Amino acid sequence: MKRKIKILEMVNFSAGICGVWTRVKEESIRLVRKGYDVRVFSSNFIKGSDKLASLEEQTEGLKITRFPATKLGGESYMYWKGGERKVLKALESFKPDLIISHSYRHTHSVIASKIAKKLGIKSFLVTHAPFANTSRTSLSRWYIQLFHDPFIGKSTLKRFDKIIAITKWELPYLSKLGVPKDKIVYIPNGIPEEFFSQKSAREENKILFLGRISPIKNLEVLIEAISLIKDKKIELEIVGPAEEDYLKKLKNLISELKLTNRIKFTGPVFNLKEKIAKIDSSKIFILPSKREAMPQALIESMARRKIVIASSNPGALDLISNGKNGFIFENGNIQDLAEKIDFALSKSHNDIKKKALESVKQFSWNKVIDKLDSIIKKEVRFS
Q1: Sign of CA dihedral 280, 218, 238, 315
Q2: Which helix (H) or strand (E) holds 351?
Q3: At residue 2, does pLDDT exceed 80?
Q4: CA max distance for the chain
Q5: Neighbours of 378 (CB within 10 A)
């Protein structure tokens, strides 16, 4: 009987609300179902919390080992205590054939690349689209541009056998860092098959935003655009976890614009069927973000045949061809957004809805995991 290929997945977080962990967990569980032996290493921090997760956990056939860590800046940049030595020690009872590390510019990915070379095994890096991050301080941007990427970044990327980009807009950045084209593979984040198969719920006279309620989402632009549109009866529902100071600011703006009766906030929706029903209940989904890497809620809304309108950020431009499968407005331009909403509401746009669905079928988790499975089998060979 042929033995299972053993895969180690390395990621900053394996607990809490974290987009990267959402991918890693789904990817790992589906690889287990395909017959791989998968283990996850991460820090013991819980994303979005000051609490710590247990050092060992077993879930859906997946074993998770967590390491105490020290934060080096921000919430996600950290160093696992003991570093390379501690990780190698933990691998004595699990000898992987492949390491898949998640997130470029993170210390655990540097460790992953070095360990793979020491063990003589294959390694993949999933980038998670860090190149459009405009929220960093000027000091950290200087460090990245002048020191990290030209030196640490380039040498780390060379050690990996495959670089997996989750978006197409990353490809020029990776090329600039010296990554050969034949080393790069495009494998996006997936969405559950239910987004393509669940029966449609009733549509209401409503516009929807679904995501984190935080400054990077630029929700002031959306709220002010609502005050300008022709339809004075349509409502806006803003759904997601909120940063309290920002939420207060938005509520004050809503009050100033006399939109209290037309805009409501709803907490995060975690149940998949409820989330799909929430998307279905809207006529339009709008994403006004200052920046996005790979906007999951946008893809999910397109899968539900919604008219989508998004700002001209890299993640949205990767997905939307303006006027064909959705609409793009100039980032931060309130008037442009209002005009796009008016046009979207002016008729049914069934052709755009159909093309929106067709354009995102590639993001079904079944298709995503099949592509990863194929690459693993080509790269990892043993007797």
Answers
A1: positive
A2: helix 350-360
A3: no
A4: 70
A5: 9
The CATH number of 194-361 is which of 3.40.50.2300, 2.40.50.100, 1.10.10.60, 3.40.50.2000? 3.40.50.2000
Residue 20: closest CA among 140, 104, 134: 104
In the chain, list all ranges with CATH 3.40.50.2000.
Answer: 6-190+364-379, 194-361
Residue 257 structure tokens: 């614009």
Task: Tell me the pLDDT tens digit for each residue of 254-304.
Answer: 999 999 999 999 999 989 999 999 999 999 999 999 999 899 999 999 999
Note the pLDDT tens digit of each residue in 104-134: 999 999 999 999 999 999 999 999 999 866 5
Closest by alpha carbon to 39, among 59, 9, 61? 9
In the structure, what pLDDT confidence band is assigned to residue 141 with cuts at 50, 70 and 90? confident
**What are the CA-CA distances from residue 266 to residues 235, 239, 242, 254, 258 (Å)?**
13, 5, 9, 15, 19
Q: What is the CATH number of domain 6-190+364-379?
A: 3.40.50.2000
Q: What are the CB-based long-range contacts (under 8 Å, 24+) for 253-262?
A: 253/220, 253/223, 253/224, 254/223, 257/223, 257/224, 257/226, 257/227, 259/223, 259/226, 259/227, 262/226, 262/232, 262/233, 262/234, 262/235, 262/236
User: How is residue 371 written in tokens?
Assistant: 């592509």
Distance CA 178, CA 150 (A): 10
Q: How confident is the model at residue 147 (pLDDT cuts 50, 70, 90)?
A: confident
Q: Which residues of 183-201 are buried (b: 16+ CB within 10 A; e: fewer)?
A: ebeebbbbbbeebeebeee
| CA-based nearest residue to 366, from 169, 183, 197, 128 | 197
Tokens read off for 379: 């790269």
Distance CA 19, CA 228 (A): 33
Q: Cα dist. 159→94, 109, 185, 290 in Å?
A: 22, 10, 16, 33
Q: Give percent of the chain above pLDDT 90.
A: 87
Number of Cα atoms under 13 Å in the Cβ half of residue 267: 2
Quick check: 317 and 328 in contact, CB under 8 A?
yes
Which pLDDT score, from 0 to 100, does residue 382 have? 61
3-state helix, strand, coil in the chain (%, to 5): 40, 20, 35
